[in-house]
Amino acid sequence: MSKVKVGLVQMSCVKDKQPNIDKAIREIRKAAADGAQIVCLQELFTSLYFCDVEDYENFKLAEAIPGPSTEALSPIAKELNVVIIASLFEKRAEGLYHNTTAVIDADGTYLGKYRKMHIPDDPAFYEKFYFTPGDLGYKVFQTKYAKIGILICWDQWYPEASRITALMGAEIMFYPTAIGWATDQDEDTNKEQYDAWQIIQRSHAVANGVHVVSVNRVGFEQDGAMKFWGGSFVANPQGKLMYLGSHENEETTVVEIDTKKTDHYRTHWPFLRDRRIDSYQPITKRYLDGE
User: What is the mean pLDDT of residues 59-72?
Assistant: First the structure.
């Protein structure tokens, strides 16, 4: 199957988990009614973005994967015949937590999970307090409709991650995301930051010749100190925007992707063919300082 309809759910969240899960399910149903075959939810969709503070109480939000949320979503996937990409706060063991995305196939089968590899530690994004870096490596999942690669938010700044995922055979790359602006920030800085975020992901589409789907949350959190900028999008293998979400609104959108375009673009722009893999060993160094 080369033509795949992808659903993006850009939504705001509240403190309690169940209303967020209920909303996500309503939006999955809406996307499926519009023909979606794969539906991607935003990063950590079951809660507010709790990493704005270092608070031990927030560890209570974590759950096993598979666990309660995948058990709630699996019958929905089976009923609607859709693949669901669900970003969750994983409790792996006592005192061991990950930022993890679960993939549920269209028959309700739990296919597996990807654990976020790159963990930020910035003001209002204190993820190192909560998450252990992923140890499963980069992952692709053969779903009913396409072989998909999953990366999560901060991973999107690293071309190495997208390259490896593409080399593993990903036909579409998905980025569940939670990123926003400080509300006391000027508009020029806001634009510069959003543009950089979008451009880097579109560049992954170009460099690897695959479609990229990025799904962000929207709305004010942290008592109004942070505005998540939405702006979810789909880029084709040349980086052209096929869909661009607003910065303000909750939106559920379905976009048709033709994965056969990868062969066309990789043939006419043969970046993979011309890679000099014999020369890339230095990339494994932290920095090339002459030592």
Answer: 98
Is residue 132 in some structural domain?
Answer: yes
Residue 290 lies in a domain: no
47: tokens are 């809660």
Contact 250, 14 (CB under 8 A): no
For 9-62, the pLDDT digits (tens) are: 999 999 999 999 999 999 999 999 999 999 999 999 999 999 999 999 999 999
187 included as an active-site residue: no
Mean pLDDT throughout 70-81? 98
Could you tell me if residue 291 is inside a domain?
no
Report how many domains make up the chain: 1
Residues 248/12, Cβ–Cβ less than 8 Å: no
Catalytic residue, chosen from 91, 116, 139, 227, is 116
- Neighbour tally for 184: CB within 10 Å: 6
Buried b / exposed e along 97-114 (16+ C-beta atoms within 10 A)? bbbbbbbbbbebebebbb
CATH number at residue 239: 3.60.110.10
Active site residue 43: yes
